[in-house]
Design a protein that fits this description.
Order of helices and strands: H
Number of helices: 1
Helix content: over 70%
Number of strands: 0
Strand content: under 5%
Structural class: mainly alpha
Radius of gyration: 16 Å
Distance between the termini: 47 Å
Shape: rod-shaped
């Protein structure tokens, strides 16, 4: 898949998007676990 390697700018943007996505998913996990503890 090296021939599909994007330039550095797209790579950094994708990296930031990936970080935001993992942050959101981890936040959702924490919130859902808190809701589960309350019930």
């Amino acid at each position: 898949m090296l021939y599909l390697l994007p330039d550095l700018r797209e790579l950094v943007l994708f990296d930031q998007y990936l970080c935001q996505f993992t942050r959101v998913s981890s936040c959702i996990n924490v919130l859902s676990s808190r809701v589960g503890q309350k019930q």
